[in-house]
């Protein structure tokens, strides 16, 4: 699924990723942990093609296809999805409209027709029911006045409707209470499957009690410096990142 080799990337001429390599096979959930400033968000932006992030060496492929050669919308069309650390509030735009626009942009990039209104409403109602989201909430302006938990539900709903193949959660757990954390974890776990892979970026082990990763990687100073099973996350929680900061 995702294969990253010797990736170097710079922001404003400052090298942030310094030879990062990572393999995430289809069907697996991998966690990336690391200290603040290690380059975790930079990795997620480089993979999704955010402006201002310059790849200077290395490769990133999705199912063998060069991801870095694609425009951000083309990557989205291939099914790359990045969750927001801080959900957008969009006054005046109902959540339903926002999701429909995102879905149609994805379909357009795939050369598919727009989803019809009845088909979209049916999909939205089905997914909302599955995720226990009050359908009326989706008629309100996106995230405006939503609680933290409601914003997370809305994001999970958006994710479920776009049905990504490769999903990146970048510290989506920051600032969440335990109920919101469960919403995120349930939504993510429900999307696990043999054709999908996920990268869960988190500073804390806590989320990984709910989303059990197949592998855990430590990102320090722009490189993956250690990899292991779920026990590595527990070790980091106990002992901190000092050991790995030196290794970098
Ligand atoms: P993490 O997500 O692991 O906390 P980031 O990827 O956000 O780390 O940041 C990695 C490094 O890149 C930090 O030293 C940060 O200050 C720097 N950085 C991030 N964005 C920018 C930017 N737009 N301009 C300059 N430096 C940046
Ligand atoms: Mg940070
Ligand atoms: Mg970050």
UniProtKB/TrEMBL annotation:
The keyword Nucleotide-binding applies. One of its GO terms (molecular function) is ATP hydrolysis activity. It comes from the Bacteria. The keyword Nucleotide-binding applies. Residues 2-246 form the ABC transporter domain. Keywords: ATP-binding, Nucleotide-binding. SUPFAM superfamilies: P-loop containing nucleoside triphosphate hydrolases (SSF52540). Gene3D superfamilies: P-loop containing nucleotide triphosphate hydrolases (3.40.50.300). CDD domains: ABC_FeS_Assembly (cd03217). NCBIfam families: sufC. Belongs to the ABC transporter superfamily. Ycf16 family. This is ABC-type transport system involved in Fe-S cluster assembly, ATPase component.
